[in-house]
Amino acid sequence: MELNDVNDIQKKAEVLIEALPYIQQFNRKIIVVKYGGSAMSNPELQKNVIKDVTLLKLVGFKPIIVHGGGKEISKWVAKVGKTPEFINGLRVTDAETMEIAEMVLNKVNKDLVTMVQELGVKAVGITGKDGGLLQCEKKYSDGKDIGFVGNVTKVDTKVLLDLLDKDFLPIVAPIGFDENFDTYNINADDAACAIAKAVKAEKLAFLTDVEGVYKDFEDKSSFISRLTASEAEELISSGVIGGGMLPKLNNCTSAIREGVNRVHILDGRKKHCLLLEIFTNQGIGTCFIADND
Questions:
Q1: Cα 192–Cα 198–Cα 204 angle in degrees, nearest 5
Q2: Which pLDDT score is estimated for 15?
Q3: What is the pLDDT of residue 9?
Q4: If we measure between CA atoms, which residue out of 264, 260, 257, 254 comes closest to residue 286?
Q5: pLDDT value for 7
Q6: 249: which of 8, 36, 159, 226 lies 20 to 30 Å off by Cα?
Q7: Secondary structure in 3-state letters for 170-191
């Protein structure tokens, strides 16, 4: 065997040893992964994310995937001659758009189930309507009625906990219903946050199209690798964080305040970002922790 081959093998062994304490720490713990953005639309990235989550399952974690599908929904909305419309980042969802969204999200859901099962792990795809998982009310955007967009009011965790107990990997599409059993489209970040809090997840990971949180997005040296809940709230109130990152920060701090041990914002475009964040000492994204941690 060549010396270079031996060195390569030793490096692989070192990586495994570095991962060992994290595998021990999080064994049998629940981790919720919100999966969306560009990582969903790129087939290679999609496979990498699914491989990451499957590996987490095989080494003893209890992962739950909550996925979006916004770009795919917009594509199909355009195909029927409608123009996708957004207000403050939320899709205006009339009855026809809701029907398209439900159809698309169910297809995305089953595609992800197939990918997981091809890797030898049992998966079950559900929506928030199954087992009464996600109950919601109409969500308004700055007082404007934007249609069938839901705000989660209650999470019934029984179906998820039963699936985890039977060794399945649950994959959740963010669709719920209200007290009148009308169907609503739910922002996938909101759905993932609500589920993580309800199942008392050890970790909640948001896979996004940015590396993490910057104090000034134009200044890459201002990247923040770790934030306490209070520090994040100060950033929010200071007004330096804006755009699509603001609701993510609110979800992160809310999850930490309500018992989720760690919340991560990761760049889903980076190969194996989940594994690098969870199993290495350095990590690659922004990690949110409790004030006393």
A1: 40
A2: 67
A3: 64
A4: 264
A5: 62
A6: 159
A7: EEEECEEECCCCCEEEECHHHH
